[in-house]
């Protein structure tokens, strides 16, 4: 399936939001290994921290959010050579710790080493520039990067194109950031992602595109820089069901063609089943279960994973309809998080052991299969079960502000008020 | 809808609006108390002379005839004769237009040149001293009546600082009426190479232009700041950041550009404030523009002159707004396509 | 009337920022000044003749100025000292500047609040009907609004006053009328024409906002539901559409009070307001005496600036918290 070399090693990553309600631990001491060329899926509810994880990797965390701790090791021998001089600590073999390099270096990796596809294509394009122009910008980043040897590029990308250039470009076309070659390449890219009449389409504005077309254009834009890692954040959520399949096919084809690594963020297990090699289930800022597709779909241990898959018998209603997981999205507020299994208050099999925060246990199945649940080491007994109202039954209202950090990044209107997973396991939306 | 069609539609609307303005002005005059003839020849005049005057100005005709005549006159650019000076209103209006335009354009230039960078700095350095300074300035700017600001500027520069400025800088801002127009000054410069007139003009216009421009500077600063902050929060900015393009492009090519598009329309609507402000600024600085003449006409109850000036101002307002709409339509691709 | 979420936004905005508090304190002080003017004023604001023995105005407390006075054809320089009787000095005809500042607040606030209120009463129904019925009705009404917008508000106001003159009427002041305070004017002049005129030139902004709101709720399900239950258009307009448009109207009204205060002061400055007890009028009084008596026009100007800042600060607070997307015209000044 894949060879075993990692492209990305995330250690101990913590991303917090400092809001008026308090500190929100959106991502908490997260560990992640992604192999070169694989499609790794992160699945979870809204507010589980999956989007924040993705954005932490590509360095798109805006205030009041902040990566407070951790390391993100990225395998790039060339980059390692360049960085070694200035910050030797940030280099380990061919790996570079992205959190220890200068912001300029970090910024220079956007578009060329990492790129991202967003959930809502309509709001992810600038409405007042043509699609072609916006694609050409992304192409230009790659063109300029490859025109320069990495050493100079890494210094500061933005110094290459300054405010002075921008002012001059209003009178001198030669000073424009985007060149004619890039515009032509943008048209090729549109064609590559299956947009008919790409020449004409390139001159049109985002509002003249359909949602599916625009998502294709966004994929083209993300591919413009020939990235090593593509982060796809809910790439199909905002689209019609029929279009969803086309977009996934396209991503699949492009991945096979280019061999790039994809980090796929979704709340939809159907998408995971179709696309991913390995998957991590995220809950309350941590990965609670991870492994190969088979591990997670067939040999899962964590009741939350089971809930996501909709296979808990008690939760199935009389009409055979899938019932949502009861309870609320967990509060990620630091002062409200207790040092226990964060799922315990919603878990039908919560036991006294769950009052201690579980480490990651190895589980049956493949070598990669681990789970953050005591059920990996013991079985459920009624005797140890917590009383039904142990955590109180007060309900927080839907659309609770505790789920904010994920949402304040502005990308998840489709699951805005969803505190439960009613659509797990299929593209039934 | 193409831009052409869009403009034709706006022009037709504009014609309707101007017709409405003309009608309102006519109606106001019709309901206005007092005999206009009195204003021309005085209440003590011989009734025969008065009748003659009424005949001459068409005041004896039935009201609808007067209306038709009036509209006809307006359409052909004949605004009638001033009651007071018996001169042609059209001439009296047109001869004052350059001074008002000079003032309005200078104020707008000052406003845009100061406000946009200030707004950008304010939005980019939120909650830093620069932002607080800009916010305080803009709060003061929108809250200060410009006639008072003008008086205070005169007090400061033309009274208290006049002598020191003359001594140390070699110039000061004069208090008296403008002596030379921009056009004449430029002609002098081009034909004779003498720049003194132009410099005199600059010294004359500085304080009035600041007075008129302050409110707009403040307002555009506020709009730019809040607009950019809103714009920065939009998802496309994050998506653009993810592409890895230089930050300067994100800030100016994407965010500032999109911020300015709606601001342009707001400014079009605020033109009324600019013109109203010009009227009062001209009064304070004795600036020989339309506003100055309007106040004279009002004080003398010189109806034809007053109507002429107001209709002319409304015409300018409508035309500029159409121009603004056209600009908006070219900048924002969504307008003409929807 | 205001939803909970907005209320909590309002509270939060108030708690977190100094500015709304400052605005509230300023506005409260100015309102107190306006209401209790007879108590706070140190002199009758209309009484003239508080001048020194040479007929010079007194400067504000702690300042002095030199002027020349004629004596038998010769001029001598004299120093005019301030007096503690007149905190902010006196004007050219010897009226107490502080007392006029206090009384000026009345005119500003009365015209600001009444004028805006009247504009709401004209503009909101106009806009609601226009937006709710849509189609031809809307087209016709919006052309009327466009026509009104083509007049700069100050220019239109001047034209209207030019036609109708500027009448005012006295509102009896209970504090003096019942003999609680002596030696103060018995009534306050409300510049009636000006109040009506500022409403006539600003209502369009309310109409635009109300129209937008009416259009946005016209097709909402609950309105359709009400219609299907047989509610008349008027019932729907006033029970469902009007309450929805209140938030933006309140915000706009606050901002417009500032614009109206500026407009009133401009009209008074130009001598078209029909009252002489007004900040704008006092500023024009001082215009000819800038070289010596700078305070005559500076003090009332500060009054206007503080009043407008107060209203603007509150307007910003409401706008940030309630976040309606509205625009209004700035002051005529």
Topology of this protein?
The complex is a heterotrimer of chains A (429), B (338) and C (333).
Chain A: E1 6-19, E2 22-35, E3 39-43, H1 50-58, E4 65-75, H2 77-86, E5 91-92, E6 95-97, H3 103-109, E7 114-117, H4 121-124, H5 131-147, H6 150-155, H7 157-160, H8 163-169, H9 180-192, H10 198-202, H11 211-223, E8 229-233, H12 241-258, E9 261-266, H13 269-275, E10 278-283, E11 286-292, H14 293-298, H15 303-309, E12 361-362, E13 370-371, H16 404-408
Parallel strand pairs in A: 3-9, 3-10, 7-8, 8-9
Antiparallel strand pairs in A: 1-2, 1-4, 4-6, 5-6, 10-11, 11-13, 12-13
Chain B: H1 3-31, H2 36-41, H3 47-56, H4 63-75, H5 89-94, H6 97-124, H7 129-143, H8 146-160, H9 162-168, H10 182-192, H11 196-232, H12 235-242, H13 247-285, H14 290-299, H15 303-331, H16 333-337
Chain C: H1 4-16, H2 18-35, H3 37-40, E1 64-71, E2 74-81, H4 97-133, H5 135-149, H6 153-164, E3 169-172, H7 174-177, E4 187-190, H8 192-218, H9 221-228, H10 233-269, H11 279-286, H12 295-322
Antiparallel strand pairs in C: 1-2, 3-4
Helix pairs in contact in C: 1-2, 1-12, 2-4, 2-12, 4-5, 4-8, 4-10, 4-12, 5-8, 6-8, 8-10, 9-10, 10-11, 10-12, 11-12
What does this molecule look like?
The complex is a heterotrimer of chains A (429), B (338) and C (333). With 429 residues, chain A is an alpha/beta fold. Chain A has a domain at 6-283: 3-Layer(aba) Sandwich (Rossmann fold), CATH 3.40.50. Helix content of chain A is 32%, strand content 19%. In chain A, the strands form two sheets. An eight-stranded mixed sheet of chain A has the order 7-8-9-3-10-11-13-12, sandwiched between helices. Chain A has a five-stranded antiparallel sheet with strand order 2-1-4-6-5, with helices on one face. The model of chain A is unreliable at 151-159, 311-322 and 394-429 (pLDDT under 50). Chain B has two domains: 1-96 and 289-338, no CATH class; 100-288, MetI-like fold, CATH 1.10.3720. In chain B, helix 8 (146-160) packs across helix 9 (162-168). Chain C has two domains: 4-50 and 88-322, MetI-like fold; 53-84, no CATH class. Chain C is built from twelve helices and four strands, in the order αααββαααβαβααααα. The chains are: A alpha/beta (429), B mainly alpha (338), C mainly alpha (333). Chains in contact: A-B, B-C. Chain C: InterPro entries: BP-dependent_transpt_permease (IPR050366), MetI-like (IPR000515), MetI-like_sf (IPR035906), OppC_N (IPR025966). Chain C: Residues 105-315 form the ABC transmembrane type-1 domain. Chain C: It comes from Natrialba asiatica (strain ATCC 700177 / DSM 12278 / JCM 9576 / FERM P-10747 / NBRC 102637 / 172P1).
């Amino acid at each position: 399936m894949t060879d075993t070399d990692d492209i990305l090693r995330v250690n101990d990553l913590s991303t917090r939001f400092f809001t008026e309600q308090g500190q929100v631990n959106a991502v908490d001491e997260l560990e992640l290994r992604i192999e070169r060329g694989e499609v790794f899926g992160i699945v979870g509810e809204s507010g589980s921290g999956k989007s924040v994880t993705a954005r932490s990797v590509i360095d798109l965390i805006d205030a009041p959010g902040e990566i407070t701790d951790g390391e993100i090791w990225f395998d790039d021998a060339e980059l390692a050579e360049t960085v070694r001089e200035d910050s030797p600590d940030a280099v380990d073999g061919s790996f570079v710790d992205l959190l220890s390099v200068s912001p300029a270096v970090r910024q220079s990796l956007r578009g060329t080493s990492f790129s991202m596809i967003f959930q809502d294509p309509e709001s992810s394009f600038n409405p007042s520039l043509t699609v072609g122009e916006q694609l050409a910008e992304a192409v230009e980043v790659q063109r300029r990067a490859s025109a320069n040897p990495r050493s100079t590029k890494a210094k500061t990308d933005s110094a290459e194109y300054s405010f002075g250039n921008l002012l001059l470009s209003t009178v001198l076309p030669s000073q424009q950031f985007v060149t004619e070659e890039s515009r032509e390449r943008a048209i090729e890219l549109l064609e590559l992602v299956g947009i008919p009449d790409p020449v004409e389409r390139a001159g049109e504005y985002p509002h003249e595109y359909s949602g599916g077309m625009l998502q294709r254009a966004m994929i083209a834009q993300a591919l413009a820089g020939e990235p090593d890692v593509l982060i796809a954040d809910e790439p199909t959520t905002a689209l019609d069901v029929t279009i969803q399949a086309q977009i996934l096919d396209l991503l699949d084809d492009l991945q096979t063609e280019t061999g790039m690594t994809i980090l796929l963020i979704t709340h939809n297990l159907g998408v995971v089943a179709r696309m991913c090699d390995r998957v991590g289930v995220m809950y309350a800022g941590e990965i609670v279960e991870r492994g190969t597709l088979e591990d997670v779909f067939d040999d899962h241990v964590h009741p939350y994973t089971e809930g996501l898959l909709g296979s808990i018998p008690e939760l199935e209603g009389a009409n055979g309809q899938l019932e949502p997981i009861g309870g609320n999205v967990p509060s990620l507020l630091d002062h409200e998080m207790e040092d226990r299994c964060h799922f315990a208050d919603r878990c039908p099999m919560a036991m006294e052991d769950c009052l201690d925060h579980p480490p990651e246990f190895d589980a049956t199945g493949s070598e990669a299969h681990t789970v953050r649940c005591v059920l990996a080491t013991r079985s459920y007994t009624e005797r140890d079960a917590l009383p039904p109202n142990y955590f109180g039954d007060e309900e927080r209202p839907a659309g609770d502000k505790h789920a904010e950090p994920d949402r304040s990044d502005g990308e998840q209107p489709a699951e805005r008020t969803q505190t439960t997973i009613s659509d797990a396991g299929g593209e039934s939306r | 809808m193409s831009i052409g069609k869009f403009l034709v539609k706006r022009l037709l609307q504009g014609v309707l609006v101007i017709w409405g303005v003309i009608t309102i002005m006519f109606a106001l005059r019709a309901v206005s108390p007092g005999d206009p003839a009195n204003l021309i020849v005085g209440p003590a005049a011989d009734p025969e002379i008065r009748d003659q005057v009424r005949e001459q100005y068409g005041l004896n005709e039935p009201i609808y005839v007067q209306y038709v005549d009036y509209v006809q006159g307006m359409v052909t650019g004949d605004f009638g004769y001033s009651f007071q000076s018996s001169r042609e209103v059209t001439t009296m209006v047109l001869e004052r237009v350059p001074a008002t335009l000079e003032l309005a354009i200078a104020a707008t230039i000052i406003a845009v040149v100061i406000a946009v960078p200030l707004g950008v700095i304010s939005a980019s350095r939120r909650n830093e001293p620069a932002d607080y300074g800009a916010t305080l300035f803009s709060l003061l700017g929108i809250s200060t009546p410009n006639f008072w600001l003008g008086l205070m500027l005169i007090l400061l520069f033309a009274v208290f600082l006049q002598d020191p400025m003359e001594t140390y800088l070699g110039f000061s801002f004069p208090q008296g009426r403008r002596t030379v127009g921009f056009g004449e000054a430029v002609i002098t410069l081009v034909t004779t190479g003498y720049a003194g007139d132009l410099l005199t003009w600059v010294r004359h216009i500085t304080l009035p232009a600041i007075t008129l421009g302050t409110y707009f500077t403040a307002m555009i600063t506020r709009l730019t700041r809040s607009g950019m902050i809103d714009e920065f929060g939009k998802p496309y900015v994050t998506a653009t950041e993810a592409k890895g393009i230089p930050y300067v492009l994100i800030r100016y090519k994407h965010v500032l550009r999109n911020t300015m598009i709606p601001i342009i329309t707001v400014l079009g609507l605020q033109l009324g404030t600019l013109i109203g402000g010009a009227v009062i600024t001209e009064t304070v600085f004795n600036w020989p523009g339309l506003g100055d003449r309007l106040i004279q006409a009002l004080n003398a109850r010189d109806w034809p002159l007053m109507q002429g000036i107001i209709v002319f101002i409304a015409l300018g307002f409508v035309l500029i707004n159409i121009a603004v709409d056209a600009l908006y339509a070219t900048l924002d691709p969504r307008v003409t396509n929807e | 009337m205001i939803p909970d979420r907005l209320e909590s936004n309002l509270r939060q905005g108030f708690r977190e920022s100094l500015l709304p508090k400052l605005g509230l304190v300023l506005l409260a002080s100015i309102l107190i000044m306006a209401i209790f003017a007879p108590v706070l004023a140190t002199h009758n604001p209309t009484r003239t003749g508080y001048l020194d023995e040479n007929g010079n105005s007194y400067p504000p407390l702690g300042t002095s100025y030199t002027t020349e006075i004629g004596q038998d054809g010769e001029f001598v320089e004299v120093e005019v000292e301030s007096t503690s009787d007149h905190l902010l000095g006196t004007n050219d005809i010897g009226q107490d500047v502080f007392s006029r500042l206090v009384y000026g607040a009345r005119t500003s606030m009365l015209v600001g609040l009444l004028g805006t209120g009247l504009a709401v009463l004209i503009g909101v129904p106009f806009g609601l009907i226009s937006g709710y019925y849509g189609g031809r009705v809307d087209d016709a009404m919006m052309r009327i609004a466009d026509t009104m917008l083509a007049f700069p508000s100050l220019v239109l106001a001047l034209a209207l006053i030019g036609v109708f003159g500027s009448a005012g009427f006295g509102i009896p002041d209970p504090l003096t009328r019942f003999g609680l305070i002596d030696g103060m004017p018995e009534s306050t002049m409300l510049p009636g024409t000006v109040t009506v005129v500022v409403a006539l030139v600003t209502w369009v902004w309310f109409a635009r906002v109300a129209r937008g709101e009416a259009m946005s709720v016209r097709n909402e399900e609950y309105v359709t539901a009400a219609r299907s239950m047989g509610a008349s258009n008027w019932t729907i307009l006033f029970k469902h559409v009007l309450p929805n448009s209140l938030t933006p109207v309140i915000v706009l009204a606050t901002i417009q009070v500032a614009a109206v205060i500026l407009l009133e002061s401009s009209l008074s400055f130009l001598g078209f307001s029909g009252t002489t007890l007004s900040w704008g009028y006092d500023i024009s009084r001082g215009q000819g005496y800038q070289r010596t008596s700078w305070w005559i026009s500076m003090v009332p100007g500060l009054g206007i600036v503080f009043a407008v800042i107060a209203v603007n600060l509150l307007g910003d607070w409401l706008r940030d918290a309630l976040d309606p997307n509205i625009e209004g015209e700035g002051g005529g000044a």
